[in-house]
From TrEMBL:
Limits of the Gnk2-homologous domain: 24-133, 141-252
Domain Protein kinase stretches: 353-624
Protein name: Uncharacterized protein
GO cellular component terms, semicolon-separated: plasma membrane
Organism of origin: Microthlaspi erraticum
Gene Ontology process terms (BP): response to abscisic acid
Membrane protein topology class: Single-pass membrane protein
Amino acid sequence: MGKCHTLMIFLASSLLLVCQNLKVVNAVDGCAGSFINGNSSYIQDRNKLFSTLANQVIASGEFYNASLGKSPDRVYALALCARGYEEHNCIDCVERATRSIQTICLNRMDSFRWDKDGEDRVSCLVRSSNHTTFGNLELRPANIYPHPDGIEPSKNMTLFQQQWDAMVNRTVESATEANTSTVLKYYGALRDEFTEFPDVYMLMQCTPDITSQDCKRCLGECVSLYKSQYWGRQGGEVNRPSCLFRWDLYAFHNAFGNVTRSPAPPRPPAREKEISKTNKKGRSIGYKGIIVIIVVVTLIINVLASIGFFKFSARRRRLKKRFNVGSAEYSDSAGQFMLRFDLHMISTATDDFSCENKLGQGGFGTVHKGTLPNGQDVAVKRLTKTSGQGDTEFKNEVSLLTRLQHRNLVKLLGFCNDGDEEILVYELVPNASLDNFIFDDEKRSLLTWDVRFRIIEGIARGLVYLHEDSQLKIIHRDLKASNILLDADMNPKVADFGTARLFDTDETRAETRKIAGTRGYMAPEYLNHGQISVKSDVYSFGVMLLEMISGERNNSFEGEGLAAFAWKRWVEGKPEIIIDPLLMEDPRTEIIRLIQIGLLCVQENPSKRPTMSSVIVWFSSETIIIPVPKAPAYTGSQFQSSESGTMSMSNVFTELSSR
């Protein structure tokens, strides 16, 4: 009986292991999730969404995401065309992939397919699910397609693996290097010459909605899966919902015609009798002579490397002495390395701060567009000389942004503090600020509900990072639509940290006599008593959320504000009154749910407001019961002045959208 029981446990464990493996690898060629009826509303909505997907991905610049239907059967779809393919090839591929999903994954909620053209070249991705996947790393399921033939036994596999691993690292770096100028930013294609193979080709790509770190993780998982199961084959492919990895001994993609061959790895030294050289007198140098040469060359390299290291260290020490942020000196140990720009370089990049390159004017300086020598476009924020407040803001932004890195925060590339010049250099965010869209009668039509929700969720994720996930604890204090910048893909980036406040990790609340921010977005306890906490930002977020839903400025509701107006309509049972008329065709239940979240964020009692992490959970789940909101704060004087005395990046990119 004991042996039978042991055998049953062994068989059950083995079956469980097999099922787990089937879930991870080749889950019916990209099909996963719950089983559903083939005539369900989910399938019908998916078919409708798929019918326009091919044309939409072209119109959106080779990457497109959309949704259709009502929860819990709402369909979220994403399409991507690989770099280098013409429009008609992209359309053909997307249509082919959607047909394949409709056939193979007919009764499954989740599906994805990296499709190939007639020459076995991956050219597009189509993905669908009943939950939003945009911006999230999706690793399961995984499909693996090994080459049928193995590498010849006569090859030196130890050397081959060293060269292959080095090529993997180079391709990952090529695919994930910072590049926000294109939709298909996570992409790398390399061609290398190995010792025993004339050409080795490798391609990696991630969907552009995830972070660089998530892209690296996804590609690393693909490589690990391939090596663990099919190492020794002549090529292979592993793809996941968020990324693709493939290598082979032939040019399987048309992009390889354009890439530059990486430097060939060094060939192994031949045997002693084959490398014996003859000197000028005709005598053999021999084995010992070669050893002497190697030792001398190694010594010279070490000496040169030491000199370079000491020079680099001296330069860092000089930089550290010249730049002091607040009460603590800036150094690499305090955060990531921050590039110090030369004033002459910045002057050249902006054409000596010419009027033609001027993007905007703030209370403490100007912002100009510039182009660095490497071709990268930047936004140069030049603080007004001899401005005490500008100097404080300069130090505050650099001290914080040098240590903050998140896809929903504006990226500070470097600084310059030469003489009385104080300059900040940011990434250029081409679509101006959010207020230029949401409060413009014409541009607001571009903000569909899907786009608005993505912006709202992105701002929330940026705040979660500031409040909880970063190495620092930051209260922004001036959160508003004009301080949210939109990149080329309409992804939001929180900007303007000049008035931000750094908290200790165990500190929950503080008081200040200096009120900085914008009236109408300030929490009542902060405006009236100077009390600051993460709930101050939550209040500002709630006001912005209601603005995004209504398309109206907070101060348009004279005497009471948008929050109070929305609360009255909520109590009357008519919350839909505040919804932007342009959103009438969109899911009403989902929008009203977000009105409820907005009202929870603007409650008068800070302790009753949710955390931003709770808001994110509510966004991603439609089954969680959200608390009933209480009355918001009402301060009639909030709208007497619209702007504070802080320098804002608001509207500094406005002219870009019209150029």
